[in-house]
Write a structure and sequence with these properties.
The protein is an alpha+beta fold. It has helices at residues 124-158, 164-181; strands at residues 2-6, 13-18, 35-36, 47-52, 66-71, 78-80, 86-87, 103-104, 113-116, 119-122. α1 (124-158) runs antiparallel to α2. It is rod-shaped and about 115 Å long.
C-alpha cells in the first residue's frame, strides 16, 4: 500500500513510500507514524500540503488528522510591521500558514512609513521630523565651518588689527552665520529650504 509521509513538526508533505506488511495480519499493512494512506492535495501558488488535526497540531497517527493546504512563506522575505525590520522564520512563526498580524511580505518603502490599514503608509509628521533632523545636522556642520572662518578674523577685530578687506569679510561671514541660524525659521522648513550662499 502506498503511503504519504509528512514532517513531524510542520506536517508538510515529504514524499511517498510503501507501508510495511503486518506480520500478524498480512492483508492489513502497517501505516507508520507521521504517514497516511490518503494522498495530499495538489498545492496551488504559494501553498503547500500539510497534515494537521482540527486544532492545528501535527498528529503522529493519521486517523487523527487530515490534509489541508497552507501558504508557505519560508522562502519569502518577511518584515515586522512594527518597524520594518527583517524577520526570519522561527519560534514566533515558522513560515507556514497565514501571516500573523505582526508580519508582512511587503518591504518598508522608507523610514517615514508606518504600517496602517494593512499597508505601509507615509506618515507626514514622522517624515517632517526626519527631514528637520537631517537639515539641522547639515546646518550645524555649516555653522561649525563658518565659526572656523570667523575665529581668526574676530581676534584681529578685538585687537584692532583688521584691514578694511578683512573687516568686510568678517561682516559677510557674520551675516552668513546669522542666516544659517535662521534656517529652521523659514516658512517651508524642512520640506523646502532656501540655504544661504557661503561667501567666497
Amino acid at each position: 500500500m502506498e503511503i504519504y509521509n509528512y514532517h513531524p513538526l510542520t506536517g508538510e508533505y515529504l514524499g511517498r513510500g510503501l507501508a510495511d506488511e503486518s506480520p500478524l495480519d498480512p492483508g492489513n499493512p502497517i501505516v507508520p507514524g507521521y504517514a497516511t494512506p490518503n494522498a495530499p492535495p495538489t498545492p496551488v501558488g504559494r501553498g503547500i500540503a500539510v497534515f494537521r488535526t482540527s486544532t492545528g497540531s501535527v498528529p503522529q497517527n493519521w486517523p487523527d488528522g487530515a490534509w489541508t493546504s497552507m501558504p508557505d512563506y519560508r522562502a519569502v522575505p518577511l518584515y515586522r510591521t512594527a518597524d520594518g525590520s527583517r524577520f526570519e522564520p522561527g519560534a514566533e512563526y515558522s513560515g507556514i500558514g497565514d501571516l500573523p498580524a505582526f508580519l508582512t511580505d511587503e518591504a518598508r518603502p522608507g523610514p517615514a512609513h508606518v504600517w496602517r490599514d494593512e499597508a505601509w503608509q507615509l506618515d507626514a509628521a514622522v517624515e517632517a521630523q526626519q527631514l528637520a533632523s537631517i537639515a539641522r545636522a547639515q546646518r550645524d556642520d555649516l555653522l561649525a565651518e563658518a565659526d572656523r572662518l570667523i575665529a581668526p578674523l574676530m581676534d584681529g577685530f578685538v585687537l584692532g588689527e583688521l584691514l578694511a578687506a578683512d573687516e568686510a569679510r568678517l561682516k559677510v561671514l557674520s551675516q552668513y552665520r546669522k542666516a544659517l541660524r535662521a534656517v529652521p525659521d523659514q516658512a517651508e522648513f524642512p520640506r523646502a529650504i532656501n540655504w544661504p550662499v557661503k561667501p567666497a
